[in-house]
Structures are given as structure tokens and as C-alpha cells.
């Protein structure tokens, strides 16, 4: 069994790593994890892979602590931490799989509407999903009749950017909010240009907005890291609360949100049964991961954004197949942050052993 674990990364991270420039990713955690499991991590881009070549040039940490290019036998197991691939790159992934290379988290970018459609098949999950439809005029009118607040956002991940919120004020009057700016308008008259643009864009979705519980007057949600572990089973590697910036409705750190210990948020409201809420979130998150893995068999690492209603009922806001992980660092959750790197390496070891056994 080769002791190299391949980790497929973005060109951005590859170039930063070669130049020894720090990023949000902590590659030293991969080094520590691989050391624990008797493996050596090697980092490369999709462009570095030649399907018919048995070897590959990858970044490997040297004894002096710096990364250097090294020619080595192509790893038999690869953990994908890259972004969405172009068609030619996807073809390359498929050819690697035919060669017997195992690639987990084969895809790291899914359309929100597809994830919604995968999950709504499960009756235990469907009640925890906001109503969601592709963006078009008919669906927009449908949603206006059913909900007091709706969101229109890109079908692909955007770190909380490119989202508009609509709130009904009275009858046909609605308030549009985008990037902290507000505009009142009537749906029976001329719509704001931004709204027309969003609705007519088939790359967007229209979604029921969940009225989230708040912390110090600002809405919050919980990032839940769900990963496959050393035994090939789903586990919760960590949970962290994300609170929206004052005056904003998105909680993403990239949009000004702040990270807190979940206990800090829940203890703020003495009416909350902290242990029950945490267990409900964990159970719900594992259920989602199980359901998604029936549709996406190579999925092994997801970051779920789970919101709580004012009645403490968990609702799925979003599923991220490439969890950024630094939310744990921002909240001072060092052990959880580290665990989000160690767990995928343990799963890689499990896959290697399973492959060697021929099962």
C-alpha cells in the first residue's frame, strides 16, 4: 500500500503554498493527521494529473519545513479539496476512477436546487426544508402568495454574496434588502431593476426565508461539520454559531458575520434546553448526510448551515460540500478546527485498507 495520500487543491492554494504564504487552510493539520495514520500527504492541482502517467508531480513537505515539488507514484486515494471542475477536468476524474483511483468528495460544488430535491425525498427531512424553486416570474408570484419573507440567491455557493431579501410590509408593498440597502416597492407596479434581473436569471433560486432565532438582536445559524471517519461512518466533527452583522441578514463570515461558541448563543436564552437543542441538531445533521450519501456516493465531508426557528426547530439553510472550516478557528474552537482535518485523513486510511483487502 502506498503511504501517499493525495490531496487535490485549488491553483490559488497551490501557488500560495509554494511561496510559503499563509491562507485560511491549515495544511500542517494534514501533516499531523497523516503522521498519526502512517501516511504522507502530497498536494497537487487537477492540471497536474496526467491520466496515463503512473507518476505525478506534487508538493511534499521537506525536513526543513518547506514544500517542494516531488515526482512520485500516483496516489491510490485522493481527497478532493478543489473547486468545481470544467468538463475536461471532470473527464479526467472519471478516467482516474476507471484506473482504480478512489476520489472522495469527487464533486465539491452542487446546485442548491439539486440538494433540495435530493433531501425532500426523505419525509423525516422535508419538514426541515424551506420551500425552494428555480427563479422565474411564475414561481416568484407563487412565493409571494405563500410567504411573508423570501430570498432570491444564486443556485451555486456565493459565501453569502449576491442575495436579496424581500419582506412584505402590507398588501402589495414589499421591502427589498440587498447589501445593507433597502428599497420599498409595490409588486403591482414597476419592480426595482435589481429584482427583475434576479428573477429573470435562471441561475438563481427563490426560497422561503426562515425567521431565525437571534443573538443580541441579530439572526444566527449553526455551521455543522459532518464527515466520514476512520470507520467509514458519518460523525459530527464540530458545531459553531455564526451571527449576522448588525443590519444584515446573512451570517457568512465573508459578509461580516461573527463566530461564537454555540453554548454562548444558547445560554443567552434561558428558556432554551441547550442539551436537547444540540442533540436535535446533531441527529438532524447526520440524517441529512445519510440521505445525501445515497444520492452522492463519494460524498464524505460537508458543512451544513442549520438555522433554528424561534421555537428551536432546526431548519436546513444550506449544504456546503467544501466546508471552509475557519469558522471554528474564528470562534477559538481549536480542537474542532483540527478535527475537521484529521477526520478526512482517517477516512482515507479506511478507504486504503478496504482497497487493499479488495472489498
Please provide a written account of the structure.
- Pfam families: ATPgrasp_YheCD (PF14398).
- This is YheC/YheD family protein.
- The protein has 359 residues and is α+β, with helices and mostly antiparallel strands.
- It has 3 domains: 4-108, Rossmann fold (3-Layer(aba) Sandwich), CATH 3.40.50.20; 112-128 and 212-350, D-amino Acid Aminotransferase, Chain A, domain 1 (2-Layer Sandwich); 132-208, no CATH class.
- Helices cover 33% and strands 29% of the residues.
- It is built from 11 helices and 18 strands.
- It has helices spanning 11-18, 27-37, 87-98, 112-119, 123-126, 137-146, 193-200, 262-267, 274-295, 326-330, 334-357, and strands spanning 4-8, 40-44, 55-61, 67-73, 77-80, 102-104, 132-134, 149-154, 164-170, 173-178, 181-186, 204-208, 214-215, 218-228, 234-243, 258-260, 301-308, 314-320.
- The protein has a 6-stranded antiparallel beta sheet, sandwiched between helices. Strands 13, 14, 15, 16, 17 and 18 form a 6-stranded antiparallel beta sheet that branches. A 4-stranded parallel beta sheet has the order 2-1-5-6, with helices on both faces.
- Strand 14 and strand 15 (234-243) form a beta hairpin.
- Helix 2 packs across helix 11.
- The mean pLDDT is 91.
Amino acid at each position: 500500500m502506498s503511504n501517499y495520500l493525495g490531496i487535490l487543491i485549488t491553483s490559488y492554494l497551490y501557488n500560495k503554498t509554494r511561496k510559503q504564504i499563509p491562507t485560511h487552510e491549515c495544511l500542517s493539520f494534514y501533516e499531523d493527521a497523516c503522521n498519526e495514520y502512517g501516511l504522507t500527504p502530497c498536494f497537487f492541482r487537477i492540471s497536474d494529473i496526467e491520466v496515463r502517467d503512473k507518476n505525478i508531480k506534487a508538493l511534499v513537505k521537506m525536513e526543513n519545513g518547506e514544500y517542494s515539488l516531488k515526482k512520485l507514484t500516483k496516489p491510490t486515494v485522493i481527497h478532493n479539496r478543489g473547486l468545481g471542475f470544467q468538463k475536461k477536468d471532470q473527464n479526467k476524474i472519471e478516467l482516474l476512477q476507471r484506473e482504480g483511483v478512489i476520489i472522495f468528495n469527487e464533486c465539491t460544488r452542487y446546485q442548491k436546487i439539486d440538494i433540495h430535491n435530493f433531501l425532500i425525498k426523505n419525509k423525516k427531512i422535508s419538514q426541515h426544508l424551506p420551500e425552494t424553486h428555480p427563479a422565474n416570474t411564475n414561481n416568484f408570484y407563487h412565493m409571494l402568495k405563500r410567504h411573508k419573507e423570501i430570498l432570491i440567491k444564486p443556485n451555486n455557493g456565493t459565501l453569502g454574496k449576491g442575495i436579496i431579501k424581500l419582506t412584505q410590509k402590507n398588501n402589495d408593498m414589499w421591502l427589498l434588502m440587498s447589501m445593507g440597502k433597502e428599497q420599498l416597492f409595490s409588486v403591482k407596479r414597476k419592480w426595482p431593476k435589481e429584482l427583475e434581473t434576479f428573477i429573470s436569471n435562471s441561475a438563481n433560486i427563490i426560497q422561503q426565508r426562515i425567521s431565525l432565532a437571534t443573538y443580541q438582536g441579530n439572526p444566527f445559524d449553526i455551521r455543522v461539520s459532518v464527515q466520514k471517519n476512520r470507520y467509514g461512518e458519518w460523525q459530527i466533527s464540530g458545531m459553531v454559531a455564526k451571527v449576522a452583522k448588525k443590519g444584515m441578514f446573512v451570517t457568512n463570515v465573508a459578509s461580516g458575520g461573527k463566530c461564537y461558541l454555540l453554548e454562548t448563543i444558547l445560554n443567552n436564552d434561558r428558556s432554551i434546553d441547550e442539551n436537547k437543542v444540540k442533540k436535535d441538531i446533531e441527529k438532524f445533521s447526520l440524517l441529512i448526510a445519510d440521505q445525501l450519501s445515497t444520492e452522492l456516493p463519494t460524498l464524505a465531508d460537508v458543512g451544513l448551515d442549520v438555522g433554528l426557528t424561534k421555537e428551536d426547530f432546526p431548519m436546513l439553510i444550506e449544504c456546503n460540500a467544501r466546508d471552509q472550516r475557519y469558522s471554528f478557528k474564528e470562534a477559538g474552537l481549536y480542537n474542532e478546527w483540527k478535527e475537521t482535518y484529521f477526520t478526512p485523513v482517517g477516512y482515507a486510511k479506511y478507504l486504503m485498507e478496504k482497497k487493499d483487502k479488495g472489498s
